[in-house]
Amino acid sequence: MNPAFDFRKLFIFDLANNHQGQLDHGRHIVRAVGEVARVAGVRAALKFQFRQLETFIHPAHQRGSTAKHIPRFLETKLSEEDYAALAQEVVSSQMVTMATPFDEESVGMLERLNIEVAKIASCSARDWPLLERVADSNRPVVVSTGGLSLSDIDNIVSFFDHKRVHFALMHCVSIYPIPDEHMQLRQIALLRRRYPGKVIGFSTHELPGDTQTVIAAVALGAELLERHVGIPTESIQLNKYSSTPEELAAWISAAGRAEKLCGVDGQRPRAAGEEEDSIQSLRRGVYARQPLKEGTALSTVDVYFAMPCEDGQLSSGEFRCGVVLSGDADVDDAIKTASLVRTQDVEKQNLFAAIHTIKAMLNEAHIPLSTDFEAEFSHHFGLAQFAEWGATIITCVNRSYCKKLVIQTPGQKHPSHYHKRKEETFQVLYGELEVEVEGRRRKLLPGDTLLVQQGVWHEFSSQTGVIFEEISTQHYNDDSFYEDKRLNSIPRSARKTVVNNWGRYQI
Questions:
Q1: CA neighbours within 13 Å on the CB side: how many for 358?
Q2: How far is CA 135 from the centre of its chain?
């Protein structure tokens, strides 16, 4: 497998038969679309289609055939020497060379011409002799999925994974051009969910003037885009789904705008300064409704909420009943955050915030829980430090065998400890887990497992947030022994909050 090739944000320009069997016209198209890519500042590949027509077409159809496609293939034939010249033109235009071989002999031609990337057309995606030959070519591969069932795509993904082929998938509809009702763009999102870690693209055959479809495709997660290209002349008429250089430039521009509109994927970015300022200017601040004395535990009877919210002032969203004033306040005075004493109840807001994050992580990981479970919040150094030191443990079953889900929010650490009676195995389901076992550090990714035997020192943490299964022998509450000896002397009830379900009114 050659994983060094990056499929992301690659624009594929399919020359197909639009060279019309004329080397000079093919060169003209390559140079023109290469210039479009250069001006747009995008990374592009120019794709050929290879067929060894002497063997690809049955002898009875070599002359006078009325079968669909065959006359055009024969009329637009180029020699291997012609394709070598075009490939050199692609390299000179600073584009990636790419080709779709339709037969095994054409894979050999692809190799002889040192074409960088191979493409599997939708019509060839179940052609197993060809797929075997392409897999042996030791090249990155792009696979179109037009007309395939999910079972067909599953087979291809498993085959190329087994063969250690570096590949990407393209949502494609093999209708030329594609009517809107057959576009099925949500298949892009489905493929992303079904094949995580694979780059998913869109091979498009809509009308050349349509720039809305590519915006929707990018919004749904397409990271690789393909378009047929050509140039009409007085004697050459383009088909209805191929783009001229001018139309191609507009299409690339629309894809670039979609990237800007959609922003980052997989994380929630911090609000821009301009957005924060806008929101802050509309927030309500907390003001004293009546004269208040130092030590007052505030409630909604003591305060009111109004604009503006000044710098350093407690906002209505931050207010919680029970916060204590550390100084006096007159009527209509702004309640400043610096003038408040946080109580233990306020500290528990850390726990509530963690619960909200954990529930969202479970949703994102598609891990459902039953309506009857026990949640244990391990806050080894107190609730105030739970965001840094701690873990949430959900007990699924605890008999002679035990299964738990262990969840850490981003940045949480669990201190070094061992068990005398329990042996446990971790398996990561979501996120990344940093573990240290007897002083040796390693990172576990989804699917990875780790055996921790009795008496073995271990600690773990996560920068990304993590959910992992702990499968073990029976768990005992007095069977954790910590490297930090202070923890061993703290009552278990002081460093753990155990509730049914998410606790709600039990915390």
A1: 25
A2: 26
